[in-house]
Predict the structure.
Amino acid sequence: MASSDDARKAVTSAIANAGSKSVGMMVGAAMSSKDKRDENRKARDANTQPSTQTSTSNTSSAGTEQKNTG
């Protein structure tokens, strides 16, 4: 795990040495990304609620086959 520790240190150092404008841009990008993920999650959850689901293509035919025993 030494490489992941080194990577964290490098990122921390880069952020610490960046100007406030750069840090602000990174924070803005992170917040925008989080907002987009939240929107996508809400849309996905709305589409998977039983009351709004209209597709029946996921029905299973398991147990409906008849065996010829004669």
